[in-house]
Amino acid sequence: MTRFHRLLPYVALATLAVAGVSLVGLPSEEARSEGVARSVRVEASTFAFTPATIEVDPGDRVTIELASADVVHGLHIEGYDVNLTADPGQPTSATFTADRPGTYRIRCSVPCGPLHPFMSGRLRVGPPSTFWRAIALAFIAVAVGGTALWRKPTRPGARLGPS
Amino acid sequence: MAETHTPRSPFGSIMTRVDLTRLPFVRSMLVARGPQLAVQLAAVAGLLLVIAAGLLGTPVGSRNPATVLVWIAWWAALMIVAVPFFGRLWCGVCPLPLPGEWLQRGALLRPRGRGRGLGLPWPRRLRGLWVQNAAFVIVALFSLPVLTQPRLTALLLAGLVLVAIAISLVFERRSFCRYLCPVGGFIGLYAQAAPLEVRVRDPRVCADHTTKTCYTGSADGYGCPWLVFPATLTSNVSCGVCLECLRTCPLDNVAIRLRPMGADLRRSTPIRIDEAFKSLVLIGSALVYAFVLLGPSSALRAAAAAVGSQSWLAYAAGFLLVTVVLVPGLFLVATRLGPSVGSSHLSAKEGLQRFAPALVPLGLAAWAAFSLGFVLTNASYILPALSDPIGLGWDLLGTTSMPWAPVGGPLVSWALSAIVLVGLAWSSRQVRAVAEDLAGGVRMALPVWGFSFLVTAGLLWVFVA
Questions:
Q1: How far apart are CA B214 and CA B228, in angstroms?
Q2: CA nearest A110 in B: which residue?
Q3: pLDDT digits over B208-244, tens only?
Q4: Distances (CA, A) of B415 to B294, B338, B365, B385, B408
Q5: pLDDT at B390 (0 to 100)
Q6: Dist CA B303 CA A8 (whole Å)
């Protein structure tokens, strides 16, 4: 068996994993439904956003109002061009169209104290897909790990017994 | 270039070694002390900058070089590049033990007389990795305040330097690195996966060499600072890549070789139980860190940061429960289930010792993924922090006002997942290889594989769900 043939299953698995991960993880096609206008007030204080998860429907016109209760905080939505900065007592807002279904991480974009790097929340556009994501990831993990487990390794020399 | 040793890897490929020290230029650069000293001095300068910035600079963690350089830049470079690809190479230039080592030797370069210090042997009861395991767990309990507060980072590093100096003046060689350093055990474990090794070319030459200058030292260099006789090296765990044996061997019998990744993981003898425990504690720590730092609960993060409070005590108890009890316990159960369905019979201890090395790839992948996620999100803090290192309003690099800009966006989670899946696949191969070595086949491997799958599932849940 040539090296190419030995590596072929792993190349196939890697391709499967990348394809699977991409299919499961990437935001799906742009929303086609006509959304509604939604307004969400997000309170930021002591390294947490409240609510921690913002849920909207695809196509919604979303206005987020950021209010800080202690120090200057920021709000950045990964995957959307949304950036807000709010001083204490001076809320700011931004409006965008939630045109990409999926779950996006929200982060504080202004250094606000020790736990700033971990201050995060979520924007969920569309119905929760956690269950199907978990199923898909479990399938990929079983396929990748199981195939690697199943193929018998080769090794010259005697087997080792327990010592 | 010489090629030596051709066993097969668990993936079936021929495990060829490439002897880098056969290249005259490489060898001369490694044997000469100047290049290594230059890097060491740069590292010491960096350490001093970090300690000064941590003590004198802004308390804002994401603006201070102490936290930004150490926990974003250095840690990510260590876990994503240095350890996976160069093993313990960092230990050869690490600044923490250098002041103590220089004091102990009374020299910066080649040996000059007897040096200072008592040179006592490290107590026999404290040898092995148990003290190092305990040191890691203790530091880990306080990790969130340390990695977010510059002053605590500086105090931790300064404290480690002072402890290293004290140990160097009382005990022989690099006892601190070998038996105490909380990061050293971590690096040593995962260095087994690296495609780089220091080994002797022919152990018979060492056996016939009466003076054993690689261990005792000579005018050309010091006896192995890591208290290792190079001819007995079978893994990277205890070799600090300090290059002294390369300098002291008069028979040109020491080589630095490229090898297939993970070549240490399939050993013919069981590893020590403290080594196995280290592997499990680090897997458990990666799970807890991922859940606490990247997970959805801000209350949990607040508890981890509030040292001394009731909520922190609960967090600490949970951390210890997962890392010291739950993960090792589950793994023990998995290794006990394996032999009962396979055809071999192992004691509980030997099951741990045989199968624990198979977790190294998954653990390394978990830490690399966790570190990659952190650095991609926070790397844009590095240049502003360097441009104004002590928070005095300087703009040395013209980057002080550079805005925060995370890299990768939503794709990061999936990149981290892919890394963990690679770790699972690699560990799965190792688990099967160990089972084959024990004549147990896939049935013996299945429970340990199940454990690896559960760890992977937990990490994927944090990264994606």
A1: 9
A2: B404
A3: 999 999 999 999 999 999 999 999 998 999 999 999 9
A4: 15, 32, 12, 27, 9
A5: 84
A6: 48
**Do the chains contact at A137 and B457, CB–CB below 8 Å?**
yes
Give the range of the structural domain holding residue B195, as residue numbers without chain letter: 19-258
Q: How far apart are CA A65 and CA A50, in angstroms?
A: 11
Same domain as B76, residue B25:
yes
As a whole number of angstroms, the distance between CA A155 and CA A152 comes to 10
Residues B108, B233: one domain?
Answer: yes
| Chosen from A28, A43, A115 to mutate, greatest number of chain B CBs within 10 A | A115
DSSP string, B64-133: -HHHIIIIIIIHHIIIIIIHHHHGGGGGGT-STTHHHHHHHHT-SSS--SS-SS--BPPPGGG-SSHHHH
**∠ CA B386-B41-B374, rounded to 5°:** 40
B348 in contact with A, Cβ within 8 Å: no
Pair (B189, B330) in one structural domain: no
**Which of A90-99, A153-162, B18-27 has the least mean pLDDT?**
A153-162
| Residue A111 phi, psi dihedral angles, 5° rounding | -55, 120
Same domain, B297 and B221: no
Alpha carbon distance B61, B75 (integer Å): 15
**In this prediction, does ipTM exceed 0.90?**
no
